[in-house]
Amino acid sequence: MTRFWRRFVRNRQAGLGAVILAMFVVLAVTAPLVFPGSAFRSVDRPFLPPLSERVLGTDQLGRDVAAGIAHGARTSLSIGVLATALALLLGTLVGGCAGYYGGWLDDALMRATEFVQTIPTFLFAIVLVAILTPSVKSIVIAIALVSWPPVARLVRGEFLSLRSREFVLACVCLGMEDRRIIVRHILPNCLSPIIVTGSLMVATAILIESALSFLGLGDPNTMSWGFMIGGGRTFLRQAWWLCAIPGVAILLTVLAINLLGDGLNDALNPRLVGAAGR
Amino acid sequence: MNEPGGRAGYALRRVAQAVPVVFAIVVLNFGLLHLAPGDAVDVLAGEAGSATPEYMRQLRDRFGLEQPFAVRLALYVKNVLTFDLGFSFRHNMPVVQLILARTGPTLLLMGATLVVSVTAGIAFGLVAASRVHGWRDTLISILALVGYATPLFWVGLMLIVVFSLRLGWFPTSGMETIGAFHEGWRRVVDIAHHLVLPVATLSLFYVALYTRLMRAAMLEQVGMDYVTTARAKGLPEGRITLTHVLRNAVLPVVTMAGVQVGSLLGGTVVVESVYAWPGLGLLAFQALFARDLNLIMGILFLSTCLVIVVNLAVDLVYTLLDPRIHLA
User: What's the complex ipTM?
Assistant: First the structure.
């Protein structure tokens, strides 16, 4: 009975996460329709408080905060998903090769993985974006380059344990190509921990992106939540809501993704606790 | 294996292992410089904005930009390994000197955060695990979930709004009251006063992390045989928890605290730039604004070295905490 209750509560959490996330996805998708034109355009008097003529008020340059939140949702979600996809690809490639082939290749790849993990993640991301010049592309690349190591370690572990199973040995005996064994036979068997890790990584990626754009390393042509907080920072005394509102948006999105990820974790691999060393 | 000689030998071996890592960072930095548009000197001097043509020529000479690739790499490695990280025009100071001057405040911030977050995390985890699914456990778990999802810089700004601007309890920025020139204990108190909000901000995420970890570790240990034994010989529950379970449950938290040093350093960039805390993070933020890439690379290099040193220290602490660990 208690176990059922716990599962129920957990599922309710995942459900809550799914609902919140769905709201932000809808907001992101419909942003160009509901708030047409650039979110950088000034539309009204500056410093209008929320719940006045504009739902969320206007900022120091008279830009609509609600439009910024909607367009920012596009930026955050797309960068989060793209960076995670790239990191998963990179991590799976490295971890898969290391786990499948073993030997010196495994040694070399794992040394490289540990090395990247030694470098302070956020500083590394800052340096990468600063050198590649800030743009959506360079932010995605930077986030992916700093977040693939946990995936590589996870995939390597899975591959190591699957490598010596009968079905893989059978494939080898049949003379199947390595690439086919890896992609068609081993990879599908370790998909669920990869999915769980990936879902939680989207949340981390969104947090990194917001911190980067808060520091002024965002794409100058794209509205983002971190940029809005960074811009409103100077006006904390007069208009604290300029910082508060985008922050709540980040908090809710990341919370929703984490809840959903935990739910996925419970559903897909009950034995795996706390994936990816978060 | 626990005699002092064994531990010293272990430390030496670990230092030897760190050498190739440091070397790899130097090579990585070199590679990053080549990734940037223009040659390394354009990046180093041009982007800082105020370099003179003479300095550019001097730099090209020093990096040997007309030389073949291998020679250039060797020159770069030699420069870095002799702690010659170049000159920052913006600050009119050698980069190494600049970084060393800013390391103290960052270490203070990191150290205080580490102590606060580990202590609070262990305490909250203990309380949460003592009555699973009670109201305290639920409350702590919800707070941990929220702490996990909150952007640090935003927490910092909101704390400033509430505690500095509205209530006026704490200063909004800096490490000391400017112009007060406190000395001795008054200075310590002044710095501690300035330290409260930055540490609270930076700790939030890690308190959440260690609480979750501690709770899980406690629940795992409670089911162990040695707990049953302790209970069978009639030890009171409080004593079992505090002297037996706690010692074992703390280990994963310490490991995690060591692993997190790199991410803690990253967090200081954001927190220091919110509170104008005069450490490495604020320096990195200012360097970003001035497009002073050379300075940022120097910070990246030295912080990575710092992470290696701290990891080594944590491993040594670990052998003290858990005598079962062999110094392999």
Answer: 0.83
